[in-house]
Design brief:
Elements lengths: L5 E3 L2 E3 L3 E3 L14 H9 L5 E7 L17 H16 L4 E5 L8 H4 L4 E2 L8 E4 L2 E4 L4 E2 L2 H20 L4 E6 L4 H6 L14 H4 L1 H14 L4 E5 L13 H11 L5 E5 L4 H10 L3 E5 L11 H9 L4 E4 L1 H5 L3 H7 L27
Bound molecules: flavin mononucleotide.
Length: about 350
Amino acid sequence: MLLTSYQLGTLTLPNRLVMAPMTRSRAVDGKPTAETATYYAQRATAGLIVTEGVQPTAASQSGPFTPGLHDDEQVAAWRVVTDAVHANGGRIFAQLMHGGRIGHVEVAGHQPAGPSAIAAGTEVFTPTGMKPAPVPRAFTTAEVADQVTAFAQAARNAVEAGFDGVELHGANGYLIQQFLSSSANQRTDGYGGSVAGRIRFAAEAVGAVADAIGRERVGIRLSPGGQIQGIVEEDVPVLYGELLKALPDIAYIHVMATTDDEVLLGLRKAWPTAFVLNPGGQIGPDESTREQGERWLANGADLISYGRAYLGNPDLVERFRLGLPLVAADRDTWFGAGGGYVDYPSYQH
Ligand SMILES: Cc1cc2nc3c(=O)[nH]c(=O)nc-3n(C[C@H](O)[C@H](O)[C@H](O)COP(=O)(O)O)c2cc1C
């Protein structure tokens, strides 16, 4: 099944493998480089590539050396990347990632802001190493609306840069999940409190992006029940069930295996369009496997995303097709400049 084609909105994917979003911390002045274009172009046989997290505004940058999509130079730099992927026959979405409270004054030059003035209780990446996550400033109600607008503008920029669409990062404890979470969100305006209040930001951001670039070009990533970066969610099936009802019929939801299979299957049944499943979840000890992918396709998923397997195996599709061994990427080169980026070759026969 993994190697059969799939119609995703207006895109025909030649197979059901998605390259999962992975931050690589190799941007220069907020821009992808020529190496970034090579890196994604090498992986263009994936059914769909989702880029590393890209900040929609300068202020929403979460960690060091990540790229943005908020000025003309960034759009031009991304154009080189999307052209390279398309020249190799691929398809690519940009992941729009707003860090919210997961940020640091040393990264974006200001105190980060989130739903409420509550620190994550974990550590964040800074240019000078890991530091305790700061207490964020709480967005005013007007500022929450500004973040919705910012997502829509970044999505327009993504289309101008040649992306086939965008994925909103609603997972892993960043801004959108902070709003969903009862630990990070203790707002008393219409964006907090009840389930209806906590899902509102996600629904408005997705709605604004869909209005801006067309819903067939939009996905959202979710980590239901995922507990990293200080996130606590209550009543996960209800929270996510209501969220799915509040979303427009976008191209896909990209769900990480961060809760029970039963809950995941319930979300699958409740969602009308494409369901992308990431078996590995939040960087567990073992990376997603081919067998897990096939099992999830048999259980109703439409597409399977692979993260770590794509770092060391640019030709992952071909390796699956021919049953070739996989290379494990060196963890020391996941983030930061230097090797371990474009130097993993295709299988040498
Ligand atoms: C180096 C690295 C960077 C990551 N960065 C992101 C990111 O920017 N956005 C995101 O949604 N997930 C990110 N993830 C999570 C992956 O997309 C994926 O969910 C995780 O690696 C588990 O899947 P796997 O077992 O197939 O690797 C990252 C993972 C790794 C290993």
